[in-house]
């Protein structure tokens, strides 16, 4: 019923400059979106307007100019860098005699190409169905004539009712399946919460380098490329942070200006990983001239998904593209890390990021000395699993004397799992906070 373009087709891009800030879009970003979708841009039509035209979105003369450009360049598709109404799309298709897409449809198509997991495919299909449900009329405009006679209906009206019913049934099915997947994710989050495992979620504008940083930190092999929305499906990996222990690092979908509302709604289950994270790593492409606007766009999406209250650490990525880019950490007046400057691709400053994570995530530190009898070899093995042993030696009675340093939450979790008897082996408990440790190091 709905036509779809093929990869490699020729497209005419349309970008209108509006005085209204709410309608402003970035032309360079549109070109990246089109390239990411696999379409070739052969011409760009631009022009200024105060407000969108009711019939064509652009003016009548500009619509004729677009149609002439399509014929001259032998283009197969017209792509607007704006959101058009169903009527405006239909009118532009009639005058251009080719497929016309708006910005929302283009983004949805890119998401459909990138989806790999079962959940991701369901979420994208749900967003596409919501988008199509308001555009059914333009698909059957040639069948919307009424027959004569009392109580007679035209074939177009019957077909529309059938399509609406099928769409509604499919949407209900997808929501039901997503609810099951969401319940599984919720169980995983509850398990991490019970075990007090911190979750760090990567967020940022699309193509800021989140997946590259994720691969650098976790040695994973998540797909990373210089294109918009290279990563769609969320990926979780375990990482180890000094004085904190095991953490979960989550790589999520990139954000973009004016992200379609249907997409935000469909991906709320996935974005819940961001909303319930312990800390957000806001990755920023500092080599981009418009990075401040990109930061504002990400902040806006975070507020839409109720994640704007989650603490975050700014990661200024791609410093290798700056003339005087040096890895460093910026601190606030209280000495807390607020920005880390690094290059994920060149592996510059990643160690500083771990240093900042330790400062932001760790609370109270246990520096303990234990005397473990030979019968408690399992306990010694548990400390090795936690990677918290700093030193060990054996004394005359055969006991193993070990010095450990671990997060207070890990110590409490160990006691809960193994029993309070562990505390019997403690012979020295030097209980400190991170601030006290830093002060000692400074003096």
Automatic annotation (TrEMBL):
UniProt subcellular location: Cytoplasm
Top-level taxon in the UniProt lineage: Bacteria
Pfam family, any one: MMR_HSR1
Keywords, comma-separated and alphabetical: Cytoplasm, GTP-binding, Hydrolase, Magnesium, Metal-binding, Nucleotide-binding
Domain Hflx-type G: 198-365
Keyword Hydrolase set for record: yes
SUPFAM superfamilies in alphabetical order: EF-G C-terminal domain-like, P-loop containing nucleoside triphosphate hydrolases
Subcellular location, principal: cytoplasm
GO molecular function, one term: hydrolase activity
Keyword Nucleotide-binding appears in the UniProt entry: yes
CDD domains: HflX
PROSITE patterns: G_HFLX
Gene3D superfamilies, per the entry: 6.10.250.2860, GTPase HflX, N-terminal domain, P-loop containing nucleotide triphosphate hydrolases
Role this protein plays: GTPase that associates with the 50S ribosomal subunit and may have a role during protein synthesis or ribosome biogenesis.
SUBUNIT field: Monomer. Associates with the 50S ribosomal subunit.
Family statement drawn from the similarity comment of this UniProt entry: Belongs to the TRAFAC class OBG-HflX-like GTPase superfamily. HflX GTPase family.
Listed NCBIfam families: GTP_HflX (TIGR03156), PRK11058.1 (NF008280)
PANTHER family for this protein: GTP-BINDING PROTEIN 6-RELATED (PTHR10229:SF0), GTP-BINDING PROTEIN HFLX (PTHR10229)
Protein name: GTPase HflX
């Amino acid at each position: 019923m709905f036509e779809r373009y093929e990869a490699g087709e020729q497209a005419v891009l349309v970008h209108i400059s509006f005085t209204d800030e709410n309608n402003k879009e970035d032309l360079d970003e549109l070109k990246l979106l089109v390239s990411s979708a696999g379409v070739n841009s052969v011409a760009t039509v631009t022009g200024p307007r105060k407000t969108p035209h009711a019939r064509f979105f652009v003016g009548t003369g500009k619509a004729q100019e677009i149609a002439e450009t399509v014929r001259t360049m032998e283009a197969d598709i017209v792509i607007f860098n704006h959101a058009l109404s169903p009527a405006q799309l239909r009118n532009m298709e009639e005058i251009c005699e080719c497929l016309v897409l708006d910005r929302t449809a283009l983004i949805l198509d890119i998401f459909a190409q990138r989806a790999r997991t079962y959940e991701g495919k369901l979420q994208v299909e749900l967003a596409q169905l919501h988008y199509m449900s308001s555009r059914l009329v333009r698909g059957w405009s040639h069948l919307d004539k009424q027959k004569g006679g009392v109580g007679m209906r035209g074939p177009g009206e019957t077909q529309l009712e059938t399509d609406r019913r099928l769409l509604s049934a499919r949407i209900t099915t997808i929501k039901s399946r997503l609810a099951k997947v969401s319940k599984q994710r919720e169980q995983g989050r509850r398990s991490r919460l019970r075990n007090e495992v911190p979750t760090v979620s990567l967020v940022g504008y699309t193509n800021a380098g989140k997946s590259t940083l994720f691969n650098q930190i976790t040695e994973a092999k998540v797909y990373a490329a210089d294109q918009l929305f290279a990563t769609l499906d969320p990926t979780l990996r375990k990482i180890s942070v000094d004085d904190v222990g095991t953490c979960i690092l989550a790589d999520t979908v990139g954000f973009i200006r004016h992200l379609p509302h249907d997409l935000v709604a469909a991906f709320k289950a996935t974005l819940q990983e961001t909303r319930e994270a312990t800390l957000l790593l806001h990755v920023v492409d500092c080599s981009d001239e418009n990075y401040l606007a990109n930061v504002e766009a990400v902040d806006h999406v975070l507020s839409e998904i109720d994640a704007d209250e989650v603490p975050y650490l700014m990661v200024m990525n791609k410093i290798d593209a700056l003339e005087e880019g040096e890895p460093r950490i910026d601190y606030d007046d209280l000495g807390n890390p607020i920005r880390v400057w690094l290059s994920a691709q060149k592996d510059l400053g990643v160690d500083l990021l771990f240093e900042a994570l330790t400062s932001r995530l760790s609370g109270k530190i246990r520096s303990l000395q234990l005397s473990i009898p030979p019968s408690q070899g399992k306990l010694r093995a548990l400390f090795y699993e936690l990677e918290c042993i700093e030193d060990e030696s054996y004394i005359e009675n055969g006991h193993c004397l070990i010095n450990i340093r671990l997060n207070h939450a890990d110590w409490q979790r160990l006691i809960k799992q193994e029993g309070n008897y562990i505390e019997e082996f403690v012979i020295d408990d030097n209980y400190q906070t991170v601030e006290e440790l830093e002060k000692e190091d400074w003096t």
